Amino acid sequence: xxxxxxxxxxxxxxxxxxxxxxxxxxxxxxxxxxxxxxxxxxxxxxxxxxxxxxxxxxxxxxxxxxxxxxxxxxxxxxxxxxxxxxxxxxxxxxxxxxxxxxxxxxxxxxxxxxxxxxxxxxxxxxxxxxxxxxxxxxxxxxxxxxxxxxxxxxxxxxxxxxxxxxxxxxxxxxxxxxxxxxxxxxxxxxxxxxxxxxxxx
Length: 201
Ligand code: IMP
Description:
- This protein is α/β, with parallel strands linked by helices.
- Helices cover 31% and strands 21% of the residues.
- Strands 2-1-3-4-5-6 form a six-stranded mixed β-sheet, with helices on both faces.
- Inosinic acid binds at residues 10, 42, 70-73, 86-87, 115, 148-152, 167, 179, 181.
């Protein structure tokens, strides 16, 4: 069965995507493993545009089935920042601290935030499948927990099953059950099943 090439260099995302899509029973390889060497300029203005830019860039070079996730943290009090700039917001290692500093003294009811994940999958013939997922919560006052990656320790999830825990405190299973990426990928998996059924007639 043809493998899926995942257009990312982010180890945290790769781990999650392999776990969430394990029932597809398809090998998921990284774009580097598939021979893609360049960098991708993510110059879209939305998560959806950036997911498509990444998937198409790798598809053009490899011709395989390419899956991309563009995701980030959207903070109400910061008018949606860091948003599509989540991976580039402040220097590496200082991103969580920058957010905490910007929200210093802001009361709990104004600390609302959500994660978004936009998925784009391009097939060898150029067909495209897309899906999005969201997860709601608020920004903590300090880092809590060591699990996950990125902004996980400062995001207090408010969704059932994980409510009150930061994603840094949640287990991988708890996060995947409610997370933006868990949701977007489960929608994608269903679309993929229907797409493949249609193809096979
Ligand atoms: P992208 O590779 O441009 O999609 O960058 C996404 C960035 O958003 C990551 O580098 C993280 O900083 C942040 N991010 C996305 N999803 C998550 C998540 O599930 N937990 C924590 N941070 C995330």
